[in-house]
Amino acid sequence: MKIAYITQPYPPMISGASVVVQRLSQGMAARGHSVLVIAASDKGHSYTTQKGTLEVLRLASIPNPKRANQSFVLRSRKTIDDELKRFCPDILHVHDIVSMGVFGLLTAQTMNTPTVTTVHALPWIVTAYLPELPGLQKTVETSLWKYSRWLNKQCQTMVVPTRTIAEIIEARGGFKPIAITNGVDLQRFNTNEILSVRRNYLCEKYRIDPLLPIILHVGRLDTDKHVEIVIKAAARAMKNSSAQLLVVGDGEHRDTLMKLAQDLGIRNRSHFPGFVTPSGDLPELYRLSSVFTTASEIETQSLVLLEAIASGLPIVAVNATCIPELVIQDQNGFLVAPGNINELADALTKLIRNPTLANQMGISGRTIVREHSLTRSFDKHEELYRRLIANCQRLSEDQDFPKSFSNKEKSQNILHQPSGFKVRESKHRYAGPIREKHN
């Protein structure tokens, strides 16, 4: 197959979506497919790289003022149109739901090319950054859901990484996406023991006390991740138990969060090493740690949560969106109410004080995460691509249909949901992030 991907972020830009697209594109290339990735440039100017059957085209970009180490493309329609027609993909997979992705979808329609769109974030990631003016967040969210319904009509199918997100979109957007896990590298993120020499090296490099349990958080240090809640909860847990905090990641709020740790009196036991690459020390930092925690309420899956579970860590997270799919209460971790600092602190304290329980939960988590292997993710994507391509060919041969995919309804009769993908009946509907925080 010839597969084209369109995305704004791509490594070395830091985001969950960039990692997903890189792994998927590399995985498909490794399986013998010809792959083109069109992404924003990390250098400002346009350039192209080629490795085997994987071509990465970086378009001229400008820095994103709201996100550290991120850029976005302004003028791209003609370039995307030209490059897609040059490459002539069998399928287009869009991971950017604004300008670049929309331009790609419009071009694909003129080429009779089947298209897939993956949703990496719900409208709440946008409303999290809005000022709390009366009616503003609701108005913007309503508009974004309306846009999602329009976007869904521009492609043959939409993909999300979890069943819960598929259910939320079905309830709020009126259409049913396909759930395919983003996957986690179970070879890289594992429970292998770290040799003492290597352990000592890592502790010295990251200024970690080798004798104290580690409360770990990994991810962007931005508004929507609510890392301030993690730090406040960790501070309370650290008053009751001997422990230290390791916050891995970078973002606009890094300095603010470091100051918060200082104000709470835990700066001398808190470590902020910045971004650590998955191909570098990150897998070992997971294995050095005692418990993983996150206060994010807007995840569509959370790559770092998958990595932590694969590394054998017990989890303390909020009971929101897709998190309960990966964290089973009292089995591989604890779920707390969104924004509830006391509950988060109590759960952290319980695991720090009971390493036997923490270890048991970590072992249970490895069982849960097996169904999220990269191999499984690649298999499901490959299956979806083949079915869409076959569907396209079938429709093109049908004299009853014009040779165009501008009308999504044509493909719905044959491909609504590929075999192997099932959406459970939802027992609840998540209404969105909770703004009020309990202190």
Topology:
Blueprint: E1 2-6, H1 16-30, E2 34-40, E3 47-51, E4 54-59, E5 62-63, E6 71-72, H2 77-87, E7 91-94, H3 99-110, E8 115-118, H4 124-127, H5 136-153, E9 157-160, H6 163-173, E10 178-179, H7 196-205, E11 214-218, H8 227-240, E12 244-248, H9 254-263, E13 270-274, H10 282-288, E14 291-293, H11 303-310, E15 315-318, H12 323-326, E16 333-336, H13 341-353, H14 355-369, H15 374-397, H16 409-412
Helix pairs in contact: 1-15, 2-3, 8-13
Give an overview of the whole structure.
By secondary structure, the protein is an alpha/beta fold. The chain folds into 2 domains: 2-183 and 374-412, Glycogen Phosphorylase B (Rossmann fold), CATH 3.40.50.2000; 196-371, Rossmann fold, CATH 3.40.50.2000. Helix content is 41%, strand content 15%. The protein has helices spanning 16-30, 77-87, 99-110, 124-127, 136-153, 163-173, 196-205, 227-240, 254-263, 282-288, 303-310, 323-326, 341-353, 355-369, 374-397, 409-412, and strands at residues 2-6, 34-40, 47-51, 54-59, 62-63, 71-72, 91-94, 115-118, 157-160, 178-179, 214-218, 244-248, 270-274, 291-293, 315-318, 333-336. Helix 2 crosses helix 3 (99-110).
